[in-house]
Design goal:
This protein has about 260 residues and is an alpha/beta fold. About 30% of the residues lie in helices and about 20% in strands.
């Protein structure tokens, strides 16, 4: 088990640089593995090397020119830099490339971060009486609505009962627990969301989330995602646009401060 230490002063200092979180994420990607294949699917972006695969939520948006014509042929370290791209389709692939490095069964074992899907990201959290926000349209943990005092869902494309994500500035400072979709890394909303969550326990979750402990230096208390365990099945899922959860082809992880 690797011990994680967060300095509050250092965290606040780093928040002053909007891309500090992304720089920390990219700096951790090392080695010279080459990206052999990328897929921009209907729901997921996919990147793989000879040794590993990674996915991230595909986010449409190509009004800005990409950093590279293609990520194929780049090293994982080069490809991961594209998570900072304002071409969100390229940023989706950049995060998938980063996850091909970070999210492996070997790293999950090294961090002692393996977890059952029965508890997953809310393991050990008492939800009773809490005010909870879900940033992204998620089901949330089992029993959430029965136990919590209030539950807010905030979504960029809101469904009936959801708040528009512009309500985050009003709602998040009131919350005890904030659960944020990993796709916020792609659309670049995560740094501001974390500024709104100083008083809350904050969790970044979903298949897009990297097993990158440095993210816990930026106000997150927990990161929960998955490593691709069945590479062929995951590639098939992305190429064919198959519906349903990708966790069936993955291995879940949870890394936490509290």
């Amino acid at each position: 088990m690797i011990k994680l230490i967060r300095s509050r002063g250092e965290m606040m200092c780093m928040r002053n640089d909007y891309f500090a979180l992304y720089d920390a994420l990219c700096t951790g990607v090392t080695g010279k593995e080459t990206i052999e294949k990328t897929i921009s699917g209907e729901r997921w972006a996919f990147a793989e090397t000879a040794a590993s695969s990674g996915i991230a939520m595909f986010t449409a948006g190509s009004t800005i020119a990409p950093m590279y014509p293609t990520l194929e042929g780049l090293s994982l370290a080069e490809g991961a830099q594209c998570v900072k791209s304002w071409n969100l389709e390229e940023a989706s692939l950049g995060l998938a490339a980063a996850n091909a490095f970070y999210n492996t069964p070997e790293r999950i074992e090294a961090f002692g971060a393996g977890v059952s899907m029965d508890v997953f990201y809310t393991d050990g959290i008492n939800l009773r009486g809490k005010t909870v926000a879900l940033v992204g349209h998620m089901h949330g943990p089992k029993g959430l609505r029965e136990q919590a005092k209030a539950v807010y869902i905030l979504e960029r494309a809101p469904q009936p009962g959801d708040y528009p994500d512009s309500a985050c500035d009003w709602i998040l400072p009131q919350c005890d627990l904030v659960i944020i979709t990993g796709s916020s890394l792609v659309n670049k909303t995560l740094p501001h969301l974390l500024e709104l969550c100083d008083n809350a326990l904050t969790i970044l979750t979903g298949p897009s989330v990297p097993l990158c402990p440095e993210l816990l230096d930026f106000g997150l208390d927990r990161i929960a995602g998955m490593a691709v365990a069945d590479r062929g099945a995951m590639r098939d899922r992305v190429e064919k646009g198959l519906r349903g959860s990708p966790y069936g082809e993955g291995m879940p992880f949870l890394l936490k401060i509290r």
